Each structure stands twice: as C-alpha cells, then as structure tokens.
Fold:
Amino acid sequence: MASKSQFFEPEIETLDRRKLERLQLERLRWQVKRCYEGSPFYRERLDKAGVGPQDIEALSDVRRLPVVTKQELREEQARFGPFGRYTISPPKDWREVHPTTGTTGAPIHNLWSERDVQNITRWTARTLWNFGVRPGDIVHNAFSYGLWVAGLSSHYGARELGCLMVPIGGAPVDKQIEYLAGVKPTVLLATPSFGLYIAERLKGKGATGSLALRVGCFGGEPGAEVRSTRAKLEAGLGIEAYDYYGLAEIGPTCASECQEKVGIHWVEDHVLVEVVNPQTRESCPPGEVGVLVLTSLTKEATPMLRYWTNDYARLVTERCACGRTHAHSPGGILGRADEMVVYRGTKFYPVQVEKVVRSFTELGNEFRVVLTTSEQGTDLCTVVAECASLADRDQLTERLRQALRDELQVTPHVEIVSLGDLERTTFKAKRLEDRRDKR
Structure:
C-alpha cells in the first residue's frame, strides 16, 4: 500500500476510477453549458454539429463535440481581436494573459482568471510532487519566464510546496552553472535540450561533482522519456530525470512522471484526456498511439473544448504502481504531427532520430534533421550530428547510418560535424530544418 506522503492530494490522486469519471462528467457538463451560453464561438460550432449542453449525458458524449484546432483559434483572433470569442469570463475577472510560443504561426492568447491562477498553481504543485519535489527543496527553474508560461506556473507550484525558488529562467549557461554550483539547488527544471547543454558545459569545466542536484524534470519538447536522452541527462547532471508536459492552451504543466518512470500522469480532475485516431477521429483503444485531444474541465477564462494538440501519445487508465488512479501516457509525447517527416515513402519523427543519436557515446547531444531538394528535384534528408573527434568520422558515419536505417526503416544521409558547430538554445530546440524548394 502506497504511503500518503507519496501524494500531494491523496484523496483526489487515488480516487476510485468510477468516482473520478463521475466528477469529470459533472465538470464537463458545467463547462459545455457555460461555453454554449457565454461564447458565440462555441455556440456556433456546437449548433453546426447538432449538439447542445443537454446532450452530454455520459462522459463518452464528449466525442459528439467538434474538435478545436490552433488554426481555428488563430482565425478567431484575427476576426474578433486578441482574445477572440472563446473567452468566457468577463474582463473584471482577468488576471494574466499567456500566449502560445508562436513557433508554428501567430501566437494564441490565453487568459487566466483568479480561480484559474489558483487551480493551475495547485495542480502544478501536484505534478512537482509526483517526481519527488518536497518542502524545503531549492528549485533551479531554468524554464523561460516572461510570456512562455511554463516558468511562471512551475514557480507558482513550487512556492505552493514551500520551496526556495531560483528564478533563473533562460539566463546564459555560465550563469546557470554559477548558481547550480553556488546556491546548491536540489531540483532542476528545464527543457531536455538545455539540460543537456548545461551537462555538456559542466563536464567541460569539470564541475559536475560540485552540484547538489537530486532530481530534474524536463519539458517543453519531447525527449526526457527517450531512454538514451534520459541516460545522458542522469549521467551528466547526477540526477534522477523525469518528463513534464503541458501547453498554454490547456495548462502549462498538466502532466508529469511519477517516480516509477512509466509515463506522464494527467491531472484528470482538471483536464479530460482523449487519444484519437487522426484519420477516423474515433477514440483509440487503451495503449494505442493517436493524437491527444484535451478538454478544460475547470478553466474559467479561456476554456478549450476538445482541443486538437497535434501531439501523439498513448493513454492507459489502469492504476499505476505508484498508487495513482489518474491516467498516464507511457513514453510521454511520441511525436508531433507537424514534425512528421515523409522520406522515400516512409514516415518518422525527429524524436526517433534523437533516440539513435544519443545512444552513441561518441556523439554530442545536438543533432539536426535537414530536408533539402536535390538538383534533380527529389527530396533529400540529412541527419547532422556532432562528434568531439573526427579521426574516425567515416566509420562513425557508417555506423550511425546503419542504426538510423534500423530505427527509421529508411536510410538518410549522415553528416558528422565538430562538437559545438550546432547552435544551442535555452528554449525549445528546433531540430527539423525544412530547406526544400517550395516552388
């Protein structure tokens, strides 16, 4: 039997599955009703689909609601102003505005009411507790502050737990190391890319042994649940490494791994999670890969009904060995639909390339997947990786090419460059570069 100290909110985290689903249905009906009555954006969509609040009689009825895409939200903002008509709460209740990163187009603006701030703070504290953050920890928060909201939400959550915050955000890597070595934080929050960059610089300075880090949690991009990436993070920083997930449209920190490391646990009392077949739009069986579709159950200001995330994942509802009853996604985020590469008739994702590249101890942590067009007009795919020593580059290139072929079922070109040639980032790494001729 799991100890209560393993849970931040044991009553809700270990709630019987049937009781949890009853709570979700109650909150779903409340949310659909207020969206229908308070938002012309949602009312028009629901009327067109022939469904209303009175039709939500079972949790499965959520499938009758139309999905909402990021492009539809962009178009809504373009026509009706920065907050569109999907904002429910009145302006007097607004407290914070948080846009998406805008990496794939115009950012989507999201508002938080006072209740939203409280809920997000509380559930983020829970996600931090999942992987071992406790009162008295010193949290080195290298998630970017400012408009990208993960830094702020995790700051709120860690303060709720009674932690000392080091709100360093995206400061240069040498400043990060100065505080890691000097203040002696016990917890690191960062993107996987930045965590690996810090580890790389620590090794170069011979400073890894001077740290007091115990755990690290990494979000903002896939990778922390890739076995080879996790191993490099743990070895390079001397920590236990965990995965974190969220998105501004729903909640910036709404799923994290527990100490069992079997996938990210969702805050299902606040977010209804579906995994949907992208072709048929039908629900996927448990454990099958599909697109995450998320619905806000408690969000007041800018709730999302069936938001199409474009992220691929699995969903399992069996009780975890940690004792939590909330669903989890084994392997975390497995890829993004807008990052899928189609090369010579085969589909793959950059996270699969990451799995291979980081399994090579000779290679650095950075890589790129570069798409170009040949003189003959055909697509070319090149994986660019770094190596400290280029003495055996030809042999290493061939080994990497074979490993990529085994993983991807197609053989890309391979280019090995010197360590440090590829740009590092404190933010989300962009490892897919599409330079193809668009004419």
Summary: The longest strand covers residues 363-373. The chain has two domains: 1-337, 340-434.
